[in-house]
Amino acid sequence: QVQLVESGGGLVQSGDSLRLSCAVSGGTFSRYYMGWFRQAPGKEREFVSTINWNGGRTYYAESVKGRFTISRDNAKNTVYLQVNTLKPEDTAVYYCASSGRLYSAGSYPNREYDYAYWGQGTQVTVSS
């Protein structure tokens, strides 16, 4: 059974930084894309970023490009999301997810249905 556990969220001020972590157990972590999504109050869950199996390919939503950095450590079965220069509009529950399947070069998973396994989320609240 695949389990994903996020951590690292919190209450911060505008301009601050956080590093979110997602520890994965029970599956073949190192083969698949890992992604981060977020859901703000009253809004649908949205794609934030994704990373391929060896970290050689990363993709970001336009709203976070240049501020967020995704990375992974396959030896630790952990994926990270470094979030810098936080804004109040970044306030959301952040979820990590595992795609559970392979993608060919040039394609990548950026929709909820592309991901088979999800964590419970970690809250990030940014005050102005």
What do these coordinates show?
By secondary structure, the chain is mainly β. It is built from no helices and eleven strands. The chain has strands at about 5, 10-15, 20-25, 35-40, 45-50, 60, 70-75, 80-85, 90-100, 115-120, 120-125. Strands 2, 4, 5, 6, 9, 10 and 11 form a seven-stranded mixed beta sheet that branches. Strands 1-3-8-7 form a four-stranded antiparallel beta sheet, with no helix packed on it. It is globular and about 40 Å long.
Strand content: over 45%
**Overall 3D shape:** globular
- Distance linking N and C termini: 40 Å
- In terms of quaternary structure, the protein is single chain
Number of strands: 11
Radius of gyration: 14 Å
- Helix percent band: under 10%
Mean of residue pLDDT? 95
Distinct helical segment count: 0
Unreliable runs: none
Topology as H/E string? EEEEEEEEEEE
**How is the main sheet built?**
7 strands, mixed
What class, by secondary structure content?
A: mainly beta
What key phrases describe this protein's structure?
four-stranded antiparallel β-sheet; single chain; seven-stranded mixed β-sheet; 128 residues; mainly beta; 11 strands; 0% helix
Task: Briefly summarize what is shown.
The chain contains no helices and 11 strands. The protein is an all-beta fold and 128 residues long.
Question: What topology does this entry show?
Answer:
Layout (H helix, E strand, L loop, with lengths): L2 E5 L2 E4 L4 E8 L8 E6 L6 E6 L6 E3 L7 E6 L4 E6 L8 E7 L18 E2 L3 E6 L1
Parallel strand pairs: 2-11
Antiparallel strand pairs: 1-3, 3-8, 4-5, 4-9, 5-6, 7-8, 9-10, 9-11
